[in-house]
Amino acid sequence: MNPKRKQRLIIVLGVLAAVGLSTALMMFALKENINLFFTPTEIAEGKAPLERRIRVGGLVVPGSVKRGEDLQVTFDLTDNAEQITVRFSGILPDLFREGQGIIANGKLIGGTLVEADEVLAKHDENYVPPEVQEALEKAGHPKKEKS
Predict the structure, then answer these.
(1) DSSP 112-136
(2) How confident is the model at residue 147 (pLDDT cuts 50, 70, 90)?
(3) Which of 59, 36, 76, 35 is nearest to 122 (CA)?
(4) Confidence category of residue 143, pLDDT binned at 50, 70, 90
(5) With contact defined as beta carbons under 8 Å apart, do 104 and 86 qualify?
(6) Which of 57, 88, 132, 144 sees the fewest Cβ atoms within 10 Å?
(7) What is the DSSP letter of 38?
(8) CA neighbor of 73 nearest in space, from 65, 61, 62
(9) Which position has the higher pLDDT, 124 or 24?
């Protein structure tokens, strides 16, 4: 092998190694920031990872909202098949109420307890987040019709 060819081969291998290393580092960084959506049924079945950031969606169970000290709120969330508890410390959205669809972002810290750091509520009386609607349909509830 002549010296020029050997030099080119070393350069190409170096570039490939650098691209591979940067791709691996990006994938590692992205893995930490991904938050997957889970339904209350999937959480109750143990499919959601503990102590990792997740999104959970469902309907707020009527009569389950309990307010504590320092803006602490606890409420139950259901997909009409299973029920989980969400604990949130902060100001709830103005549109938050019992019986409506919400999505909570946070960590699963127990079997069915989610410590939320963000609660998102629907923006009008007909809207249900797509993930929540899909979960409700899987649980046997019909799709809401838009009026």
Answers:
(1) SEEEEEEEEE-SSTT---HHHHHHH
(2) very low
(3) 59
(4) low
(5) yes
(6) 144
(7) E
(8) 65
(9) 24
> Euclidean distance between the first and final Cα of the chain, in Å?
75
For residues 47 and 38, the answer to whether their CB atoms sit within 8 Å is yes
What is the spatial distance between Cα 64 and Cα 49, in angstroms, rounded to a whole number? 25
Backbone angles phi, psi at 80, to 5 degrees: 70, 10
- Check residue 121 and give left, alpha or beta (phi > 0: left; psi -120 to 50: alpha): beta
Is 36-138 a CATH 2.40.50.140 domain?
A: yes
Which amino acid does the sequence have at 42?
A: E
Shortest CA distance to 92 belongs to which of 112, 126, 67? 67
Q: Is 141 annotated as a binding residue?
A: no
Average pLDDT of the chain to the nearest whole number:
85
Question: Is 127 marked as a binding-site residue?
Answer: yes
Condensed to tens digits (0 to 9), the pLDDT of residues 106-128 reads 999 988 899 999 999 866 556 66
pLDDT value, residue 126:
62
Kindly list the domain boundaries of the chain, sorted by start residue: 1-33, 36-138
